[in-house]
Amino acid sequence: MHATDIQTLRTLIAKHKRYDILFGIIGLLATLVGVITLLALFIDLVMGGYGRLTPEFFTNFPSRRAEEAGILSAWVGTILVMLVTVAAAVPMGIAGAVYLEEYAPKNWVTDLIEINVTNLAGVPSIVYGLLALGLFVYILDFGQSILSAGLTLALLILPVIIVATRESLRAIPVAIREAAYALGATRWQMVSDHLIPYSMGGILTGVIIGMARAIGETAPIITIGALTFIAFLPPLPGTIDPARNMPAGPFDWLFSPFTVLPIQMFNWVSRPQAAFLENAAATGIVIIVATLAMNALAIWLRYRIRKNIKW
Amino acid sequence: MTEHIHPEVGPLKAETKAFNFFYGSNHALKDINLPVGDRKVTALIGPSGCGKSTLLRSFNRMHDLYPGNRYEGGIMLYPDNVNMISKGVDPIEVRMRVSMVFQKPNPFPKSIFENVAYGLRVRGEKTKSLIEDKVEAALRGAALWNEVKDRLNDLAFNLSGGQQQRLCIARALASDPEIILFDEPTSALDPIATASIEELVAELKEKVTILIVTHNMQQAARISDYTAFMYLGELIEFSPTDTLFVKPRQKQTEDYITGRFG
Q: Are B117 and B174 in contact (CB under 8 A)?
């Protein structure tokens, strides 16, 4: 090859490589937008609300005096609502996913259901709120209660759990299914002894990511009528129900009025006084930390459970 | 229950009679008549796509797991003379009597012990001591006991490929099957592991009837008593292994075993 040819070749390569670098920079910037926004938001929240994160903030009920107000009823409400959500969404989600993946005949009805499940994940949460208002609050007469809220959020995260479960079911090799069948297992034995245990990592990840989404949901809970000012705790078992002045039954709390963290935050944001904004920021920190902690837990669990499984 | 005797093979454990298999509209196996001698090793050989694995997987009704498959004719199981592929016979019942070892070792992501015990658990066996005895016997039968007896609770994935395959054999053995189907059991293994599996097959036939698919003709010659050569979904020739490899009756068999095609 002639020297001049090599020169042109090198110029050409150098020119092409410039696009490489260019895209590298654009890509990095695009990635950073997300990271920096989250970081900025978080720093802003911390600056605004850090001073309010005292132990009393977690043990006080909301109050008209900003400096005495706390999030006790909100975080207890959030935990109880999440409890109902998980109890309803996890069995339903796993059952739905296992059915679609292992039992459903491959025909157009199944295809239709599949498309619907995928689309459910894209339905705006306020629409779920409207549905829940009609179904749970009025038709089933659960009232504006923890039960209604928990079931509403369960519907909301159901597609997330179904999709995550199906993905981890699909990752299990056919050879494992055939090995179980070849030993004389029925379909249910195969599912319960093998598929579900082996896909637990993926299922748990889906559950936690779904919960991380549900914990911050405000719109559907406002729609079903959660109260914004609650200065009492739901009648938990073992406590005295103040409304009836007698020991609370094991399920009384399900029908109690409630509030949750994002609603408490929303309530404080809409107050004009700056001190309440500080409370709102502090609540925001609690929600974000809870969400990030759940995501971290999901990653750790996936890693832990996948360690024993190689495919 | 009368004994079923084949003029060439002697007492039979199973037999396909005018057996046909369809995958959708594809006629995959055509009019197969194959005797399976009791406690003998019968090898199925032939080029890729000849239907040997399809035939093997008919013996435990694996095809029932997938839609669009259809059997015709009979696969008789002796001595009770039942047609395993007839509609009235539950495939699960067939699989409890006819177990299978697959091409690639496919242990469950469970402990060594639980892998072997699974067949018993499926049968509802709860007695701990009985399960332990059967697991030990099966692991001994698969020549794996001495290697794993101190780490039965280890994950099966921590075993080597050859050990995993012997574990799969132990798993198939634990529930006392009448027939074991081997689907190219050594194709994923190195020569040493292959030799140990072949040795094992030779020992197992004392107790159990074996049907093995292999694409390795030397393997068929080494371990089997009878060999069936299949081509394009048809059974071309069935003979005692020595005869088939030394004096094949059919031109196609000769062409295949001398390496002219396949």
A: yes
Tally of structural domains, chain A: 2
| Helix intervals (H) in chain B | 52-58, 91-97, 112-122, 128-141, 145-148, 161-173, 191-204, 217-223, 241-246, 251-257
For residues A36 and A76, state if they share a domain.
Answer: no
Q: Is the ipTM of this complex over 0.95?
A: no
Q: Are strands B10-23 and B5-6 parallel, antiparallel or unpaired?
A: antiparallel
pTM reported for the whole predicted model: 0.81
Query: Which residue in B177, B206, B153 sits closest to B40, CA to CA?
Result: B206
Query: In order of start, what are the domains of chain B with their CATH numbers?
Result: 5-106+177-257 (3.40.50.300)
C-alpha span between B79 and B56 (Å, rounded):
20
Judgement on whether residues A26 and A174 belong to the same structural domain of the protein = no
Tell whether A168 and A89 lie within a shared domain.
yes
Whether the CA torsion A83, A88, A91, A95 is positive or negative: it is negative
Interface contact B89, partner A, CB < 8 A? no
By the CB < 8 Å criterion, does A107 face chain B? no
Residue B161, CA distances (Å) to B157, B197, B235 in order:
9, 11, 32
| A189 token code pair | 């034995």
Q: In A, which residues are within 8 Å of B175 by CB distance?
A: 183-184
Q: What one-character DSSP code corresponds to residue B111? A: B
Q: How far apart are CA A234 and CA A254, in angstroms?
A: 8
Comparing CB atoms, the residue among B96, B155, B168 nearest residue A184 is: B96
Range of the domain at A35: 3-50
From A139's Cα to the closest Cα of chain B, the distance in A is 42
Over its C-alpha atoms, chain A yields an Rg (Å, rounded) of: 25
Instruction: Please check whether residue B140 is in contact with residue B169, taking contact to mean a CB–CB distance below 8 angstroms.
Output: no
- Say if residue A277 is in the same domain as residue A138: yes
Q: Are residues A35 and A180 in the same domain?
A: no
Q: How far apart are CA A213 and CA A222, in angstroms?
A: 16
What string of pLDDT tens digits covers the 311 residues of chain A?
576 788 899 999 999 999 999 999 999 999 999 899 989 988 888 888 887 778 877 777 777 777 777 788 888 888 888 989 999 999 999 999 999 988 888 888 888 988 888 888 788 888 888 888 888 888 888 877 888 888 989 988 999 999 999 999 999 999 999 999 999 999 999 999 999 999 988 888 888 888 888 888 888 888 887 777 777 777 777 777 766 777 777 777 777 777 888 888 888 888 888 778 888 888 888 888 888 888 888 888 888 877 777 66
Burial of A132 (0-12, 13-18, 19+ CB in 10 A): buried
Among B23, B87, B28, B94, CA closest to B231? B28
Same domain (yes/no): A122, A256? yes
Neighbour-count burial for B114-127, b at 16+ CB within 10 Å, e otherwise: bbbbbbbbbeeeee
User: Taking CB atoms and an 8 Å limit, are A179 and B60 in contact across chains?
Assistant: no
Sequence letter at residue B245: F
